[in-house]
């Protein structure tokens, strides 16, 4: 406003300045009124809320108690669900532990059958062993003691073992102890009926090697996962793999192992 008064005479300038001052004063008064009105509205709103809170005190208390009851019910339900989940997890762990234990014991039975003196390694599935023999022999070997050998054999019947008609004898169902992936190579031990024994780092699932003494096809009676040893660095402890007597090499038409020599 004052800028617009520049260039005027003294009297006109004073008149313009007075008008500008009055306009500014009125503007300040308007802002002050609006501020006071807002404060009044705010106080009135607070008063109404306080009155409503006082009027609804009983209803609020009832609502608060209802919410507390609902929360207690929800907390009890959640506690029951957590307890059920913990019980289910505990039962699952127990079942898993029992399955692992029975699987290990089934491997013990499998090994026991395959290491019997009359076990024919050229026809592994043909030999039958009395279950009562398994019970009497393995009972003293396993710690802690286990007295459910018959139930265990029956539980794995059809998967790892085959029962006789009278269900008193059992035989292995697989040609080799190892029943993992067919592409997985393991270390194996062989025992021929002629008395020849040998071991090989080139054994596989359900495959034979021929005996060098009598050329009989023999399946390993024991197998385990390959382990790297310091012997691999010593040429004196390394032996060549006999490709001509290995079923896997014969079927493949080439070496079944990464290298011809292996540590023993």
Search tags:
three-stranded antiparallel β-sheet; single chain; alpha+beta; 13% strand; 264 residues
How would you sum up this structure, described in words?
- Among the domains are: 106-172; 186-263, no CATH class.
- The protein is built from 6 helices and 10 strands.
- The chain has helices spanning 2-5, 10-55, 57-114, 131-138, 149-155, 247-252, and strands at residues 129-130, 161-163, 169-172, 186-191, 197-203, 209-210, 217-218, 222-224, 238-240, 261-263.
- The strands form 4 sheets. It has a 3-stranded antiparallel beta sheet.
- Strand 6 (209-210) and strand 7 (217-218) form a beta hairpin.
- Helix 2 (10-55) packs across helix 3.
- The chain is elongated.
Task: Give a brief rundown of this model.
With 264 residues, the protein is α+β, with helices and mostly antiparallel strands. The chain contains 6 helices and 10 strands; from the N terminus they run αααβααββββββββαβ.
Rg, rounded, reads 46 Å
The coarse silhouette is: elongated
> End-to-end span in angstroms?
107 Å
- The proportion of residues in beta strands is 5-15%
Strand order of the largest sheet: 1-3-2
What count of helical segments does DSSP give? Answer: 6
Tally of strands: 10
What's the average pLDDT? 83
What structural class do the secondary elements suggest? alpha+beta
How many strands, what sense, and barrel or not for the largest sheet?
3 strands, antiparallel
Secondary-structure element pattern, one letter each = HHHEHHEEEEEEEEHE
Low-pLDDT segments: 231-235
Estimated helix fraction: 40-55%
């Amino acid at each position: 406003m004052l800028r617009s008064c520049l260039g005027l005479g003294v009297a006109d300038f004073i008149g313009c300045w007075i008008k500008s001052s009055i306009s500014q004063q009125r503007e300040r008064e308007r802002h002050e009124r609006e501020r006071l009105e807002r404060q009044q509205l705010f106080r009135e709103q607070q008063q109404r809320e306080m009155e409503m809170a006082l009027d609804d005190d009983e209803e609020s208390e009832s609502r608060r108690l209802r919410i507390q009851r609902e929360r207690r019910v929800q907390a009890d339900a959640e506690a029951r669900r957590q307890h059920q989940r913990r019980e289910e997890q505990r039962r699952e762990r127990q079942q898993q532990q029992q399955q692992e234990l029975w699987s290990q014991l089934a491997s013990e039975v499998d090994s026991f059958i395959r290491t019997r003196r009359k076990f024919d390694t050229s026809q592994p599935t043909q030999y039958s062993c009395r279950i009562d023999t398994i019970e009497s022999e393995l009972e003293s070997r396993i710690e802690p003691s286990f007295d459910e050998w018959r139930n265990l054999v029956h539980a794995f019947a059809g998967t790892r073992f085959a029962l006789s008609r009278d269900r008193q004898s059992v035989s292995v169902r697989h040609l080799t102890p190892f029943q993992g992936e067919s592409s997985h190579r393991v270390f194996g031990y062989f025992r021929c009926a002629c008395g020849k024994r040998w071991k090989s780092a080139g054994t596989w699932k359900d495959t034979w090697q021929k005996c060098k003494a009598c050329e009989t096809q023999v399946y390993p009676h024991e197998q385990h996962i390959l382990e790297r040893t310091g012997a691999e660095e010593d040429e004196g402890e390394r032996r060549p793999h006999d490709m001509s007597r290995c079923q896997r090499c014969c079927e493949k038409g080439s070496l079944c192992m990464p290298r011809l020599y292996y540590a023993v």
